Structure formats: structure tokens, C-alpha cells
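Subject: sequence -> C-alpha cells, single chain

Hey, anyone have a minute? Need the predicted structure for the following. Not urgent.
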Amino acid sequence: MNKITKISIVVFALSSMFVFSSCERDDEQNLDERNWQLVWSDEFDESKGSLPDSTNWNFELGNGDNGWGNAELQSYTNDTANIRMDGNGHLQIVAIKNGTSYTSARITTKGKFEQKLGRIEASIKLPYGPGIWPAFWMLGSNIDSVSWPACGEIDIMEYRGQQPDIVHGSLHGPGYSGGNPVTKSYGLTQGRFDTDFHLFAVEWDEEKIDFFVDDYLFQRVYSDDVSGDWVYNQPFYLLLNVAVGGNFVGFPTSDTPFPQTMTVDYVRVYNEIR
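Reply:
Had a minute. Here:
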């Protein structure tokens, strides 16, 4: 039985679980009751060593422009050394050191699946080490016509490998991008994000975006909280990658072990049923 059949129902209410956890952890969380219907997923059930499903994902290759605009060090490939199924229902994205150079992988759903509003989630076990920068994120589908940051960016999860107990959720848009996003961090009171799977999600509607870790709401951003235009009432596509180095994390050090693997159990997207 694959993971999607284990859900047992496609339409379900997550809100009751959220309300319970919010009352237990934080009385100030205000969570609406919502019913969600699964509209897209990848359960990564392909055979061991295979590449991601090409009907869902594209590869972005190479070094990009100025290290993908962030002074990153890696070159992205579609080699199974850097990206593959593990045969147990997981996608692995692997950052490798080759002498003084690095390779990794970055995949996107651009042109294959795009989502406007809803709940977007992934269960991921993260890598670790100074200079390791994994992310689960989204870009506006109009990026080719308006460029970044006018297209908008939703960082559902990004993480500095040197801080294995902290993740970050951020929005980048016109007037609040690069080193000045709308952002908040979430830290585990016990444990680390590289030792087990954790659920990273956003719930997104016309006027706000909520950021969750393990169904705990740690950040809510309303449209009037941003210093520029709210550019999130359009379709976005998904991205998964592991960068090495860059402005956000700094450089790898002699204490950074390689290879480093981000393991993804699933990615799922839901629409709200009203």
C-alpha cells in the first residue's frame, strides 16, 4: 500500500487538530476551521535509484547567475548521485563535495503544476552542517514576465545547516526581498531537524499566509503586513533543493561533513472546500 492510500480519506479537517495543539501550546493562535481536499501529490514511490517523475518535476541545472543570485557554490545536476529515489517511498537530494567543488540538485514544478491558495505541505528530514542550505519553497508563475522579486516567493521552509534545531519561513516580494524579507524562525525545544521527519506547511488565502511546523502555527502574515505589494493572489510553482554556501548560510567549513542528504517523504497540495 502506498502512502497516499494510507491517508484513507481525501477530504478531511485538519483544523480540529490545529485548534487542540494551539490551545495546548499557545492560547493566542487563531485558527479557522477548514476542510481540505487533496488536489496534487508526489509520494516518491518509484523504484530505488530512479529519478523524480518527469510529469511532476523539472530539473534546474548548473551554477545559475552569480550562484543563483545568492553566491551559492554548488552546480545542480540531474545525476542519480545527487537526486534519486531510495526505494522506500522517499526522494533523496544529495549535496556532494568533489575536491574544491560541489554538486547537488534542484527540482521545480514550473509549467507542470502550479497552485493558487490552499495548503501546501511536505514531510522532510533535513541535512546538517555549516554552509548547507536546504529549502522547500514556491515562486510566482509569472517570474519570466515580471522577474524576481515582483513575482513573489514563499519560503515554506529554509534552514541553515549550522543551526539544526531552527527553520525559517519567509515571504519575498517587491519592497521586501533578499536580506529584508518578511520572516520568522521556529526552533525545536528538543531534538533536531536532521534526525527525523518533520512536516512543513503553509495555509494560504487571499489575505494571509500561515506558516506551520508539525501543525504548529508559528507565523501569520497578512496582506497589510508587507511593506510593498501583496503579490500572492496568483499561481505559484513548487521547488525543492539543497544549496551549498550562499549569502544566507555562509560557506562550508572543515566541520561540514559530506555528502549531505535531504530526504523527502511526500509533497501534498490541497484546496479548501467551502
